[in-house]
Amino acid sequence: PIGDVEEDELVLSGQGAAAGMLETAPAIDPIERMMLFMRIILSRPQQFGTEAISLSQACFLAQELGRLIDTVNNENLDFANLRNLVPEEYAGHWQETLKFLEIITAYWPQILLERGVVDASERKNRLILKQAQIWAEVRPERRIIAAGTTATFPAMRELVRVVAGLPNGEVVLCGLDKFLDRESWDKIDETHPQFELKALLDY
């Protein structure tokens, strides 16, 4: 699976370019991450703009924090501009939300650093980009096929782009509408089922 590249696979690929590239920290276990978030949420609710909540509510909020981190990592974004995302008329409510999000903007990076780990989504993207870099540098002659992906995340798009440019690289796009006229193709937006494939081809 394109999203499950692992360090062992890079080593076993036999490419010398992988030698100095396997310094990615291990991933924190998803359950451990959720439990840590729950502990933080339950320990100081007022600090993060919430009232006393139940264990199940804390579990839900912890899962949502994890999903937000993974989305940001997958889209190759960060939380630096978080305060400026919301229009002024919603500023009061947004400030309360920002208090809660301090769990991941102020505290979480330090927790990861102390434990010597990274989020699994960040580690996955680093490894995908390393694989793309290795293939771009070594340009293996063997047949490599990227099949059935819409490559919705930047790291995956880059890997597919590299594969397409290899001597014997192929990309198989499932479900691509090859019969749309040019005008209709150019007007495809985020609501269209072909949008992800168009974005990949444009990339």
Describe the structure.
With 203 residues, the chain is mainly α. 53% of the residues lie in helices and 4% in strands. Helix 2 crosses helix 3, helix 3 packs parallel to helix 5 (120-138) and helix 5 packs parallel to helix 6 (154-164). The longest helix is centred in the middle third of the chain and has 25 residues, at 91-115. The chain is globular and about 55 Å long. It starts with 6 loop residues before the first helix and ends with a helix.
Task: Give a quick precis of the structure.
With 203 residues, the chain is mainly alpha-helical. Helices cover 53% and strands 4% of the residues. It starts with 6 loop residues before the first helix and ends with a helix.
Q: Which range best describes the helical content: under 10%, 10-25%, 25-40%, 40-55%, 55-70% or over 70%? A: 40-55%
Write the element-wise H/E pattern from the N-terminal end onward: HHHHHEHEHH
- Strand order, largest beta sheet: 1-2
Largest sheet: 2 strands, parallel
Q: Indicate the overall shape.
A: globular
Determine the structural class based on helices, strands and strand pairing.
Answer: mainly alpha
Mean residue pLDDT: 86
Radius of gyration: 21 Å
Give the strand content: under 5%
Number of strands: 2
Entry keywords:
single chain, 203 residues, mainly alpha, two-stranded parallel ribbon, 4% strand
Set down the secondary structure blueprint.
Blueprint: H1 7-12, H2 30-43, H3 55-74, H4 91-115, H5 120-138, E1 144-147, H6 154-164, E2 169-172, H7 182-186, H8 195-202
